[in-house]
Amino acid sequence: MDVDLVGLAESLVAEAERANERRLLVLSGPHERGYDALESILDTLPVGITETTLVGPDDRLRCEQIPQVNAGDLLGTTRDVIAIDAHEELQPNALGKVVGAVDGGGLLVLLVPPLEEWPNRRDGFDASLAVPPFELDDVTGRFKRRLVETMRAHRGIAIVDLETDRVESDGLTDPAPRRANDTPTPPPDHRFPAAAYEACLTTDQVDAVAAFESLFERERAVVLEADRGRGKSSAAGLAAGAFAIAGEDVLVTAPSSRNASELFERARELCETLEGGAAEDKPAGDSLRIETAAGGSVRFLEPSAAIAALESADIVVVDEAAALPVATLESLLAANRVAFATTIHGYEGAGRGFSVRFRDRLAESDHAVTDCTLVEPIRYAAGDPVEVWAFRALLLDARPPVEPLVADAVPESVDYRRLEGDDLLADESLLREAFGLLVLAHYRTEPNDLARLLDAPNLEARALVHDGHVVSVALLAREGNLSAETRAMMYEGGRVRGNMLPDILTSQLRDEAAGEPAGLRVVRIATHHAARSRGLGSRLLERIGEEFTAGEGSDDSDATGGIDWLGTGFGATPGLLEFWRENGYRTVHVSTTRNDASGEYSALMLAPISDAGRALRDRHADWFVRRFAALSSDAIDDLEPDIARAVLRSVDADAGPPLTLTDHEWRVVAGAAYGPGLFDVDPGPFRDLIVRYFVDDPAAVDLTGREERLLVLRALQGRDAERVAERLEYHSSGQCMRALGGAFCPIVDHYGTDVALEVRTRFVDE
Ligand SMILES: CC(=O)SCCNC(=O)CCNC(=O)[C@H](O)C(C)(C)COP(=O)(O)OP(=O)(O)OC[C@H]1O[C@@H](n2cnc3c(N)ncnc32)[C@H](O)[C@@H]1OP(=O)(O)O
Ligand SMILES: Nc1ncnc2c1ncn2[C@@H]1O[C@H](COP(=O)(O)OP(=O)(O)OP(=O)(O)O)[C@@H](O)[C@H]1O
């Protein structure tokens, strides 16, 4: 080989060391030559085998090797050199996870096919985007084209063409030598020991530790946000140690104990510094525990155990909070003094439930909240070119437009726009705004989603733009239109990628024909927070409906038309159910388990366009109404009553069986409403009536919100009267049951047959 590859790698590393930055070396060309080059580089660089990792399919070097799917193992760890073999495939998520693990002074190496060809090759990841009925050939290469373009445009990235033996770019930036880091100093008035601050590596970390001092007071919460590798876990550990030294019992929780290791490391070091090795580190089962001379402690419990033990702790620290379900975070908020540390950008595809949903709940709580953001990286210098490139290429920092640009947007001021892949690729700011809005509005968006948006044949995006800026955006997926073979396979228990609605309607709800009509699922919709509640989201759905109604019916399956139904599935909340209902969508199913990430039950809704779509919606609405009462006392017996009310109200009013209570059942119900009868002897007819009442939503039946919740909790979900009385603030279970009878009076008045009304006259003077 003519080019002095080894010399280039050495210069890159020398420069990286000088600046405490990283460098990226792209080796493009035939697979084997890539490995030959990599091996000679690794043989020469003064880097230990233990500090090197190969991320790829084969164990080909004398160093640690992990496949891309396990790239998450590198999160929170540090390596001098990481090489990614992207010949067989490149998973965008793996790239995002790996980039943060390379140490300052280190090298990231990317083995790729010749750059000109790479975007035109379909790889293993692309295969995952070819969801039925689409084929691999339908997948495009825009994401890779974007990677190549940004690699060529960014600093600090060397590109070598191994086929032509040419250095396309040497990636050298000739950086100024790094300034010696100023040693951070403790804040002037501090309550933690100075050693807690002296252990900090950056001024940001000092500020973060200081933020924890607010937890000396009651009813306080601290929120620590940072990109990966800013030292937030360590800051939390120093604070936890300082509290333990002061005699407090600190309970630490995180998705797994592995996530909390840095925190315990710092806490233990601090306790040892201050107590001269007195701190005890006792592994007890799977929990870590540090105890101090003052009787304080730092201990780890898994989230569910931590929730059960909140009462016993003085202070609760939640690390990697964004990766926990919102429901779990809410339960942890019951702690009086609590801190949440979380990653804000999606290296890990970590949940954004934290910022999206939990923030509101935190603001509503009684805690005074202290916020702190750590910006300065710890593993490498700020402004590191590899991080800058990764953020840009993977849009890890994509943001919606700044508020003033869209603050005046109203339905009359906006244009409807199809966001075609090529437009998005060509217009960086359009892509950033649209993707940024999707990311901000959803709790789980990751680099793979960017690739999907650009390349997946089943996905489309639409937006409302105000003065050229995206103010509302929707991500749409084509579903259904599946062959008889695929449908049979699903019906028999096989899985099909994409196609969420047909999949659930077929495999769970046993409708083999559900995948036949063609649909369009609104995967995600978001309006800029500065312009919500002005009808923009509804306008966007309306325009989408118009566009796809144009070519109604599955016979005509050309690019825009050929759609039988619009649909959606999302974590159900009363507000969202109302939003979709207002826009013509009707509920056909509620999931029987809570979503892992959001902690919510999902609702599936359909808005038919063609006759085939209407038939699909109608039969599923009918089945849903028929099964709802039985579900309520079983799989969804803990569905929040306000969600149950909203779910039933958003079912098509014509759906479900007619009321068929026998004369005897009417006597039982009317007897409980107006006389001495009891709900408990025969709940069935009561439940049928309640479901009918909610689905019809008749104005003539006058019930309060509290009465409706009572109907759900006691009668549909069959919960214990005493608990229901407590929750709805009735004086006693007796009063609660009397109120239940009372709630049935207007229902009997409205629906009751002559037999029922006769019962009423026995007890009421008319
Ligand atoms: C498949 C999915 O993507 S479901 C997830 C939807 N997206 C999100 O939750 C992201 C955050 N939220 C948003 O971006 C917006 O609130 C959207 C997209 C839900 C609605 O967009 P908007 O432009 O505000 O819609 P629009 O003005 O037409 O309708 C608003 C009405 O919907 C209802 N609504 C929507 N969301 C909520 C909510 N979270 N809580 C209460 N009501 C809500 C209300 O009735 C509201 O009217 P109001 O504010 O006068 O009470
Ligand atoms: N004060 C400190 N003293 C010693 N080492 C530190 C300190 N702060 C951070 N580090 C080291 O820097 C790296 C990143 O720190 P830490 O894990 O706390 O950051 P983080 O923001 O939680 O990062 P990640 O999200 O990647 O886990 C770790 O290897 C940690 O050991």
Automatic annotation (TrEMBL):
Reaction(s) the record says it catalyses: cytidine(34) in elongator tRNA(Met) + acetyl-CoA + ATP + H2O = N(4)-acetylcytidine(34) in elongator tRNA(Met) + ADP + phosphate + CoA + H(+); a cytidine in mRNA + acetyl-CoA + ATP + H2O = an N(4)-acetylcytidine in mRNA + ADP + phosphate + CoA + H(+); a cytidine in tRNA + acetyl-CoA + ATP + H2O = an N(4)-acetylcytidine in tRNA + ADP + phosphate + CoA + H(+); a cytidine in RNA + acetyl-CoA + ATP + H2O = an N(4)-acetylcytidine in RNA + ADP + phosphate + CoA + H(+)
Signal peptide residues on this chain, from the entry's feature table: none
Main location: cytoplasm
GO molecular function: 18S rRNA cytidine N-acetyltransferase activity; ATP binding; tRNA binding; tRNA cytidine N4-acetyltransferase activity
GO cellular component, one term: cytoplasm
Key words, A-Z: Acyltransferase, ATP-binding, Cytoplasm, Nucleotide-binding, RNA-binding, Transferase, tRNA processing, tRNA-binding
Annotated residues for binding of ATP: Q205, R379
Region Disordered: start-end pairs: 168-190
Pfam families attached to this UniProt entry: GNAT_acetyltr_2, NAT10_TcmA_helicase, TmcA_N
Record-listed acetyl-CoA binding positions: I525, A526, T527
GO biological process, one term: rRNA acetylation involved in maturation of SSU-rRNA
Keyword tRNA processing (UniProt): yes
Matches recorded under InterPro entries: Acyl_CoA_acyltransferase (IPR016181), GNAT_dom (IPR000182), P-loop_NTPase (IPR027417), TcmA/NAT10_helicase (IPR007807), TmcA/NAT10/Kre33 (IPR032672), TmcA/NAT10_N (IPR013562), tRNA_acetyltr_TmcA (IPR024914), tRNA_Cytidine_AcTrnsfr (IPR053477)
Function: Catalyzes the formation of N(4)-acetylcytidine (ac(4)C) at the wobble position of tRNA(Met), by using acetyl-CoA as an acetyl donor and ATP (or GTP).
Protein name per the record: tRNA(Met) cytidine acetyltransferase TmcA
Species for this entry: Natrinema zhouii
Gene: tmcA
